[in-house]
Amino acid sequence: MEEVPVTGEHLTEGTGDTMLQIALAGLTVGIDCRYDYLPRQCGAYVTAGTPDFVVRVDASDIAREHTAEGEATAGYLESLAAYRKIGRALLDYDAMILHAATISFDGRAYAFTAPSGTGKSTHIRLWKQVWGTRVGIVNGDKPVLRFLDGVLYAFGTPWSGKEGWERNVRVPLGAIVCLGRGAENRMARISASQAVPRLLHQILMPDDAAGAEATLALCDRILSCTPVYRLACNMDPSAAVLAAETLTGAGRPPLKE
Fold this sequence. Notes:
By secondary structure, the protein is α+β, with helices and mostly antiparallel strands. Helices cover 32% and strands 27% of the residues.
């Protein structure tokens, strides 16, 4: 179906005749699609089999996204609405979506969370500059965190931000880092009570009371087993060195000749 910029008069019901199935966080998710944006976005995640759950997006869902996003294509807005519905359904599987740029480093995932525009992508680029191939991308914007057999994993998703950084992988989560700008690089571990208000601004909070309660309970569980750090940093590569040393004890990389 052709995509057009969405204004009020374009919010009509689509055909709804495409059932997309994707592998997401160890689950098979069905998405009832009306536009071709989602199938293209989710190409690396397409799978077969019986879905664990199905989400459907109608014109009213797209209209709500249009109100929040301003002018955008109908397909893009459908993708946002689907992501929100998937986020709500994931709570039934001990999983949630976090707004974070997430990397893998020496076998562990590290999620850097902050408001948009803070510099998450810039910080990840510093890691890649300093540590090279030891750094892998999990997701650049919206990974899923899910408990499986008592282990908390970070999963890649197709919702990966403007850079398109994503891989369909799962990596045990080593830590969450609340990122902020600073003239000098400083990093310290913070308590769960200090982490809660920072994380609540970066998670997908459902509108319904049951979903909100489940989200808060899952946050408590995540914070009970996951260290959280506060990192104030600049755009110098030394910020990535400090972060890696603090999180993993990694030694400084050799000087480049």
